[in-house]
Amino acid sequence: MAARLPGVDTVASVRGLTRAFGDRVVLDALDLEIGPGEFIALLGRSGSGKSTLLRALAGLDREVTGELSVTGSVAVAFQEPRLVPWKRVLANITLGLDAPAERAHAALAEVGLTERAQAWPLTLSGGEAQRASLARALVREPGLLLLDEPFSALDALTRITIHQLVVELWARHRPAVLLVTHDVDEALLLADRVLVLDEGRIAHDSPVTAPRPRHRDNPELITLRADLLAALGVAPEGRS
Amino acid sequence: MSVIELEAPADVRPRSRPQPARTWGKAWQRWLSPVAVLAIWQIASSTGLLPPRLLAAPATIAATAANLIETGILPTAVGVSLQRVLLGFAAGAAAGILLALVAGLSRPGENAVDPLMQMLRALPFFGLIPLFILWFGIGETPKVLLVALAVAFPLYLNTFAGIRGVDGKLAEVAHTLKLGRAALIRHIVLPGALPQTLVGLRQSLGVAWLALIVAEQVNATAGLGYMINDAREFLRTDVIVVGLLVYSALGLLTDSLVRLLERRALSWRRGFLG
């Protein structure tokens, strides 16, 4: 568990968070503290409640019980980019935003989409749409950025580019990030704290201290990878 | 038919405009059979095989059309009919869309409006003509109201379904973007319901002309329907056919207006065509 005093220097604090769907308890008295600027990856098997936790933090689930306090603003980038199809890319970025247009243009420039500002979302490629979704989240200058498997539908090459982009954007704006993913390597490459959700609780919580940019063959990452795979109940390669 | 066309999977990737499949060199082949039918029809009429009291010859119909336009009979009749359709359409569309908004945007509204609309929808509205005559006489009112009634239902049903069919995931996005209820309705719900509303618009315009034709068969003293009815008394099949052709031309015209509207309002889903 995170050795941090509750309520002190956190952007989000969760105590005893519980959520059941019928008889199935998905989150079981879960505790979690998220510090400012922390890049956290949340791993878990399919159905382990990763997305449920993220939705609770995003305020999209009103049926969770327990304490949940989030200071500062929250922004979300979803698995599908969820751009509003009848608004051009720029209008998607500024939707619900009370800020000058220059900020939106700057956000688009940061994700490399200046050229596509007036494009319809349906004409974007998967990577472009996901970058627009990131810009829409970041332009709100959130204290906590929630990423719900935003890379899982991208092809391998695009994913590498967007990984780098996310780390750059995070380094520049320093929001706390909670990245939900099922990809152990992705978690190790991006995050400085990796959590494993199992049976409704945080079952594993380890820092990643390797300097960025990281490579998969970093010894620290190799060790962590084996631990995480074990925590996820998967036998690491090379052993049986 | 319009439903199928609209719900065809959208091709979302940019691409160049499709080339017309048929070149002009071969397009005339499609005119062969209509021209042949016209020719046979004309020959049958000229030889007396098809008596004019059953169906006038194409040449006679063309001459009659020209004559009806010159004498001002046809333009006047079209003017009267157009006015009825426009008035009825405006009233019916306003009512249909308003009720759909009430029902679509709130549960109490749905409980209040939808059961009534579903019950009324089951009424055969042409069967209401006798009641309408008793209530409103034989003037313009029952004709306009019949059109309005016919228009209101397709627009209500489609707009309501459109509002309820808006992607819940986009509503979640609106929530995370801190959009209030008014902004949610304006930016997400109404634009999201628009494609289905336009389907309703096309259906309602089609049925508006149909309602007009039926309404004008009853006690009309002016308009296209009156012209047709009057012609029947004198066995003027040429005038009847001209009237029918004008009805269908007006129907095609309004339909193409909606298509134009669709192309402009829904350009976001055809963005790849520029």
UniProtKB/TrEMBL annotation, chain A:
Pfam families: ABC_tran. Keywords: ATP-binding, Cell membrane, Membrane, Nucleotide-binding, Translocase, Transport. One of its GO terms (molecular function) is ATP hydrolysis activity. It comes from the Bacteria. The keyword Membrane applies. InterPro entries: AAA+_ATPase (IPR003593), ABC_transporter-like_ATP-bd (IPR003439), ABC_transporter-like_CS (IPR017871), ABC_transporter_ATP-bind (IPR050166), P-loop_NTPase (IPR027417). The keyword Zinc-finger does not apply. Gene3D superfamilies: P-loop containing nucleotide triphosphate hydrolases (3.40.50.300). Residues 12-224 form the ABC transporter domain. SUPFAM superfamilies: P-loop containing nucleoside triphosphate hydrolases. This is Aliphatic sulfonate ABC transporter ATP-binding protein. It comes from Acrocarpospora corrugata. The gene is ssuB_2.
Automatic annotation (TrEMBL), chain B:
The chain crosses the membrane at residues 56-78, 85-106, 118-137, 144-163, 240-261. The keyword Transmembrane applies. Keywords: Cell membrane, Membrane, Transmembrane, Transmembrane helix, Transport. The keyword Nucleotide-binding does not apply. Pfam families: BPD_transp_1 (PF00528). GO terms for cellular component: plasma membrane. Its main location: membrane. It is a multi-pass membrane protein. This is ABC transporter permease. It comes from Acrocarpospora corrugata. The gene is ssuC_3.
